[in-house]
Structure formats: C-alpha cells, structure tokens
Amino acid sequence: MKNRIITFILGAAALAAPALAQTSALPLPPPVEKELAARATNVTEVTLGKNMLAFAAKFMNGKDEDEAATRKLIEGLEGIYVREYEFDKEGQFSMEEIEQLRKYFETSEWSSLVRERERKTGESTDVMVKLVNGETRGMFILIVEPKELTIVLILGPVRMEDLGKLKGLAGLGALGDVEKNTNAKEKEKTKDKDKKGGNQ
Amino acid sequence: MRRLWLIPIACVVLLVPVAVLAGSGESGFEGVVHSIESRYHVHATRIPFLGLVSMVSRKATNGGVGSLHVAEFDSFSEPVDGDELNRMVEQKLGAGWERIIRETSKKGSEQTLIFVHPEGERMGLFVVDLDGHEMDVVEVSVDADHLNQNLGPYEHHHHQSDQDGDESD
Fold this sequence. Notes:
A: 6-stranded antiparallel β-sheet, globular, B: 169 residues, alpha+beta, 47% helix
C-alpha cells in the first residue's frame, strides 16, 4: 500500500512538472546560447520577470500620459528577456546556430511579422508575434549582424504602437527600430492595397 | 567525577566544526565581499558611518531607500572571469535572489551583475560592478512607492527645465 502511494505521488509529480514548466513566464536559455556566450567578447543578459516589471512600473507615477501608457504596458507583461552578443571578428557563429535559435523560440503559436535578409552583408532581422485568439501575446525579435547578435523576447500582451515606449528599459533600444520597421511595413501594405483598389 | 573532564572536550569538539562552518558559510553582502577579497587578493574599502548614512537615507526618503551596504575595491589587477564571479555571487546570495542583468566582457575588465530580491512591498537590489581596476558592491532595499513620492517633485522640476531648454533652442 505504501509503495502504491509513493508511486502515485511520483507519477503525479512527473505529470505536473511539464505543466509547471509551461506556466513559467520566461523560457530557459537554449543550449546554443551558452556556446555563443563563450565565444562572444561582450555579453549582455537582461531577464525581467513579472515581479521586476511590476516593481519598475511603480516608478512611473502616471501623471505624464506617456508614463501612464508605459506603466500600463509593463504591468500587463509577463516577462522580458534580452540577450546581446558582441564578437570581435566576423564568422564567430554559423547559420545553423542562428537557425537553432529561431527554432527554439518558434512554435505553432508564433507567426512571422518581419523577415529581412541581406545576402551581401549576411544581416537579417526576424520579428515574430505570438497570437492567441487574434491578440498579440508575445514578440520575438532576432537581429543578426556580422559581429553582433540580439535576441529580444517579450511575453504578454504587446501592441506595436506601444513598442517604442519600452526602448528606455535596459537592453531594449532596438525596439525603437523594430517599431519603425513594422510601421513602415504596415504603411507599405496599406499603400499596396490602395494601389490595387485604385487599379480596380 | 572522573568523567567530568570529558565535558569541556566534548564542547570543544562540538563547537569547532560549528564555528568553522559558520565562518565559511557566510552569506549575503558580507559573504560576497569576503569571497571577492579572498579570491582576488584585494581589500574592500568601507565607507565610515555607513550605518548612520543608511538610517538617514531611510528617514529622508520616508523609507524609500534603506539597508544600504557599500564596499569598494580599488586595486583589481587580475582579469575577472565573468562566469566565476557570477557563480560566486549567486552562491553567496543564496536562494531568493534573481539575476536580472548581467554584462560581461571576455577581457575581464568590465563586469556588471544586478540581482533583485522581492521583500514584500520592498525590493532588495544587489549590484556588483567592475570597471577597469575598480569594483563596487552595493546592496540596498528600495520601496518604489515611497521613493517615487519623494522623487516626484524633483522629476517635475527636471521635466520643466528640459522643456525650457528645448524652447530656448
């Protein structure tokens, strides 16, 4: 009888473990990150969980409109995860490693918003959003430059127009550019639609 | 009566390991500072009357900033392995502390670690910053609501002076 109880408890624990892992806000870093960090000259890691974001939000008193909007945005987020690797020379990471990074964060819920590739320089930008019932619940940004790699993962409800507001937070300077980039893409799309509509 | 001499010996035998373990297991701010001192052969400079400063700052900010601890190392001559430093600080701080920022350079001359520890309404912050030959270790407990109330008037003044500057441009 005692053995049965122990087996039951162990079984329940084994079943609960993946469920707990799924509910944790921020993912564990993919194994490839360790290798990248070992080769990089400079590494910046920012991991802000819900607690820390709530604490940061308290400093925005809400008297200013912008601050109030940023506070609202931050309070709703589940986590922010930034990794920046700087290398002293080119060729310190392979395309396979970049692909591993993309795949690690890419699941069925994520869809690509921006995909930019420059063959000459090897630079690329990926912006993916997590859509749940038509709402943006997360954003993944991967910026690859010959000597620099930037990963930004934001979990929680995010609106494109609010992205730039986060750029003041540590390590999130790149968000200002992403906001411009996505806005420009959206404008292009509407222009194309207008043109097509005009032609018809 | 013959066995009474066993009592002090037993006490010594029992107390020595406890004292040794207590010394080596020093944790928190002091644990981190002592680990850095012994690992890198440097000596920490303490700010005199910091306890008083901490008390005054707590009073002046209505509890916004308190439990201030500062140690400064001036003569870091050997490069610092970022991973090793991180492990050492994490181990000495113990459970409950969560690292939010880590900045590390391979050359070893620049390292930054920021840890946080939720303490109810307050947040404990622990910063280790190495820049060249100088390292600062700071621990502080912050109450965001109270601190924000105190910073509010200055922030407004700051915004206003910024706007005035823009207008004059």
